[in-house]
Amino acid sequence: MKVTYPVRMLRNSTAALSGLVLACLAALVVAVACGGDQEASRPTGTPAATSAATAAARAPGVTDTEIVLGTHAMLSGPKALLVDLVPKAEETYFKYVNEARGGVCGRKIVFKLGDSQGDPARALEVVRRLVEQDQVFAIVGGVGDMPHAAVWGYLNERGVPDLFIIAGGYRFGSDPQGHPWSVQLLPDFRSEGTSYGQYISENLAGKKVAVLYENDDLGQDGLAGLKAGLDPTKNQIVAEESYEITDVDIRPQIIRMANTGAEVAVLHSAGGFTAQAIKAADRLGWHPQLFTTYVNADDSIFAFLPPKLVNGLISTQGMKLASWTDDPAIAQHYEIMRTYGGPTPSLFTIFGQAAAELTVEVLNRACANLTRKGVMDAVLSLKDYRSDLFVEGLSITYGDTDRAAFERGMRLVVATVENGKGKWEYLDSPTHDSRINSPEFR
Fold it and tell me: Please, are residues 72 and 120 in contact by the beta-carbon 8 Å criterion?
């Protein structure tokens, strides 16, 4: 997916601005990729090879009155906080389309949610049930890097469209030959890390950099991108501290980072780990310029941290902010969520609606050939597509060799405090570094 705008950065800013186990499941994936419906049981892995057969047979999950879709998501358990809003917003938007717009292609959308609880093995069990028992037409907006890494091989073996993945791992958009049925929606963490590296070397040259990263796609990809974006003649990474998602206390990592005297800290971390890191740094009296991944760039962070501790925190975004209630698209999002029983709007619900909007768009484009092959052709027909939920200047394009989301980076946002309350704002003054598309990054 190509983004038509450059990375946005603030020139000469002041100091204040500022979702794995696929390999071990491979044998299981191959073993279960048999049986089921006529279309799904073919041992093909590419849309082109299935064209004639799918055109001649009714697709799974499609009847005269319904299109059955499914997803796996973290709906319960300790990892469900906030991210469960994504599939709930998708479900709400599909309800709106059914009731207010009469559905898609003369059919109502049935959306089946499977609870992965954030566990890869459970995600595979859920997706197998959706495909083999519920006979879903496609999986839409599968949530989480580790859970989705366990299922995307299975979906591609069976030729099931794996649409608009809600995960930031670089892998999900970078293998169109091996996984031709998969397309990513979230920006990948490598691109995000690269944008941070570029910004730091352009605006904070000479300052030492310390990194905290989650030991999975989020952190590893983010760190790789950061190293690609930094100019080594201007900035040095003096600490690389990792943590596991099963860890309870990451204060030792923060202490070691602080002891380096780093003036910049990049937190490729999520949720409670980010809050813990910022609190620990404050208690140590260490106040570097902070950067953090976009999964934290939501107003919910101000419920976990005092706004004064978050002030100046830099992150990335590409969607309009949930606080922009005067914007017509955001106002409509609020109205849809309210009228059709959805969750309170946030970054997560906006991403959920964006995934659902894209799904409706490609289904409408495939009405004359409502097959799995047809819907993939519709996905690849998206050229310079814009959602009203995107920030100005952003459009997306998928292609045979490009299934990635926002690989040229996101716009930078900063957390600020106004009247004692925290909020996010976009930074201005676009700059662009061509190294983001260089071989060392890609």
Answer: no
* Phi, psi of 213, rounded to the nearest 5 degrees: -140, 145
Burial class (CB in 10 A: 0-12, 13-18, 19+), 399: middle
Cα–Cα distance measured from residue 268 to residue 410, given in angstroms and rounded to the nearest whole number: 15
Q: Which residues pair with 62 in a beta bridge?
A: 67
Does 22-187+326-380 carry CATH code 3.40.470.10? no
Strand order in the sheet with 162-165: 108-115, 66-73, 138-140, 162-165, 182-184
Take residue 407 and report the two structure tokens written for it: 């690989």
On whether the CB atoms of residues 40 and 160 are closer than 8 A, the answer is yes
Please tell me whether residue 370 adopts helix, strand or coil conformation.
Answer: coil
Q: Calculate the dihedral angle through the C-alpha atoms of 293, 294, 298, 300, rounding to the nearest 10 degrees.
A: -40
Q: CATH second-level architecture of 189-317+409-437? A: 3-Layer(aba) Sandwich (3.40)
State the Cα–Cα distance between residues 359 and 74, nearest whole angstrom: 20
Structure tokens at 264: 């910049």
Q: Residue type for 278, please? A: I
CA distance 191 to 441: 8
Each residue's pLDDT tens digit, 298-316: 999 999 999 999 999 999 9
Which 3 state secondary structure label does DSSP give 122? Answer: helix
Written as six digits, the tokens of 361 are 């768009």
As a whole number of angstroms, the distance between CA 401 and CA 405 comes to: 12
The answer, as to whether pTM is greater than 0.85, is no
pLDDT for 356-376, tens place per residue? 999 999 999 999 999 999 999
Q: Show me where the domains of the chain are located.
A: 22-187+326-380, 189-317+409-437
Provide the pairing of β-strand 66-73 with 138-140.
parallel
